Each structure stands twice: as structure tokens, then as C-alpha cells.
Sequence to fold (209 residues):
Amino acid sequence: MDMGPAFEKSARAPGHATKAIICYDPFHVVQLVTNALDTVRRQVWQDLRRLPDKDAAHRFKGARWALLKNPGDLTDDQAVTLRKLKRRGGDLWRAYALKEALRAVFAGDLSEDEVAMLLDRFCSRAQRSGLKPFVTAEKTIRKRKAGILAAVRLKINNARHEGLNRRVRLIVNRAYGFHSAKAALGLIMLTLGPIEDVLPYERVPVVDP
Fold:
């Protein structure tokens, strides 16, 4: 689930999923730090706008996607922009390095213990960085660490559900509205159903004959 407190509060409410294991999708963990990076980027841009050199902020244009996209997805121009930012250094490059360090934690097939160790290392770096958005993100990660590691251990993420949500929204938008909820649900089930949610540890391994 998302790391927002409202989600866990709802899950733990009487009559809900009080005994469920809370898992925080690694995607949302990386998104949390990516948002922190974007906050630092905006702060740097505002600082550049106050400089006597009025073209400094303009030269910074295009940095957003160069910083937020995965390195392998950058266009040639964005890669050039990123190299310029690296040469410039400062808070923005430190923020980018922190974001990439956390993304790398979940990019490979690491064990729960390995992820735990790397998360502790990231949190220590973020705390010492002096970058307020990253200090705030670090506190959230420490608080939600058990749920993050549970997702790694159980190999659970929201990818399939997020994909289904996007397709449901597309179906509803293309229909220009429904006269009843039943009609909407009928078209969704006809297009996407049957929907079966099988957890990774519940899957039966396929044995070659």
C-alpha cells in the first residue's frame, strides 16, 4: 500500500484487515524520495531566479526530467543536462545521488537482510545530507521500514493493481459516463475479468513433464 498514514489507519480499523501484514510497495518508497528530489530542484531554481544573472534560471530549464527519469530512459539532451548538473555539484546533485542510491536498492533481486542494511545506510546518508526534504523522507522510511521489508520478503507490489486502475479509468472515460454503477462494473468485468489475485507465495510452481 501507499505509505500515507490514512491507508494503515483504515486497514487497522475494527472490522477491516486488523491481522493483515502491512506491506509498502517499493515503488512508493522510491516515489517518496523522488518527490523530495523535486522539492530540492524547485528550491534551487528559485535561488537561481534571485541571482543577478537572469539567464541562470533559464539555463536550468529542462533539468526536471533529466533528474526524475531513470538514467537508462534519458534522451541525449537530457543526458547532457545531467552531466552539466553533475559538474555543477551542490545540493541538487547530492539530492539526485541520494535518489539513485535508494532506487538501486530495489532495482535488483536482493534479500530482505540486504535491503534492510542498505535502507539503514541510505537513511544515515539522508539524515546527514542537511537537505530538509530528504531528512523528512528518511524519517518516514525508518517509521515504515517493517512494512517495506515485508513487501520485499513476500515479493508483493502494487504493479498489477495500478495497471488495472489505469485501464478501469480508461474504460470509464471512453464511455462518457454510465447510467448506473452496474453498467460500469459490467463493462469492466467484460473487458478485464475474471480478476484473480494470487499472492506470490500462493502460486503453484509449474513442473515440466
